[in-house]
Amino acid sequence: MNLALDTIWEHPDTPSSAIDYLTGLAEELVRRPRGIRLSLIVSPRNRHRFAAVEGGCDFVVVPYSNERRLLRIATQQCVTPRRLAGRAVDLFYAAGNVGLLAGRLPQVVKINTLQHEQMPQAVGLVRSLYRGWGMRRSVALARRICANTEDTKRRICSAYGVPADKVVTIFEAVSEHFQPAPPPLQAAVRQRFHLPERFFLFSSALYAYKNPALAALPALYSAATALLYPSFSETFGKPLVEAMRCGTPIIAADATAIPEVLGGAGLLVDPRDPPALAAAMQAVALTPGLAAELARRGRERAQAFTWRSHGDRLAELFQRVLEEGPTGPVGRRL
After folding, report:
1. Tens digits of per-residue pLDDT, 268-298?
2. What is the residue extent of each domain of the chain?
3. Beta strands in the chain (DSSP E)
4. What is the pTM of this model?
5. Is 193 exposed, middle or buried (0-12, 13-18, 19+ CB in 10 A)?
6. Side-chain half-sphere of 201: how many Cα atoms within 13 Å?
7. Which CATH number fits domain 2-173+307-324: 3.20.20.480, 3.40.50.2000, 3.30.470.10, 3.80.30.20?
8. Crossing angle (nearest 10°) for helices 288-301 and 238-245
9. Confidence band (pLDDT; 50, 70, 90) for 14?
């Protein structure tokens, strides 16, 4: 199978945590001994982020990634199909919500966000309009839709009228870089960021480009009394898995996909109830047994989010799509 993976939808200089997904997936696919030949769609600006797979896959270089959004859209929709022509690509994996909006190349589209549907004011009018139209078109053209939680799957089906058997849930993975840090590294990270002996970590500072650096995150998680994650809406919530891998107790919102990801490994509170959040923080801080139990549950739960498991599920999905041909999962053309 010759698989094309689109990476240009991420900003090359200030990417979101989705860049970890793209680099991790590329490395996982290249590690596999057989079955998938990878054609990686990159730009001159973002190619360096995939240096680890140089020589292990084909690089399809196109002019722009998301450093210039309008030109990136034009590149994705107009230039990319031409660059793929003649490469005998069997399947296109669009992991950034919007796939190729024309043509006959079989596609699997991964939907990561529905913010434009739920909170358009947070996304902006122009982006909301493009996402709304582009994702509806992508959903219609795709052979399968990939969702990262069952909650997201239900929302995709509701928003776009998609039959449930066209949407496949595959949990995301996080890097093995996230492991419990030894006490000396915890002490060093406290000193570096002027932190007290006990503190709660809030997720808005967890993207690498916002500070702190990615290398410091495992030690920050490990040193924290707990991770606070009072988000109103998440389709997955990667910091939850990162924290669980590091053995950090979690206090999170009882909302959208968060309970599904935690799987009982954290304390859930109403994100609109500050007293409830404060009570949970106090309970974790003052009850060592509770904190230890949450950490244990988290480490166990984190085993469901490995790259091996994610790669296996994706490979099975890709193979099934190709075996089915243009006829969809319910025996009709999609």
Report:
1. 999 999 999 999 999 999 999 999 999 999 9
2. 2-173+307-324, 183-304
3. 2-6, 37-42, 58-61, 91-94, 107-111, 144-147, 167-169, 200-202, 226-229, 250-253, 267-269
4. 0.89
5. middle
6. 28
7. 3.40.50.2000
8. 110
9. confident
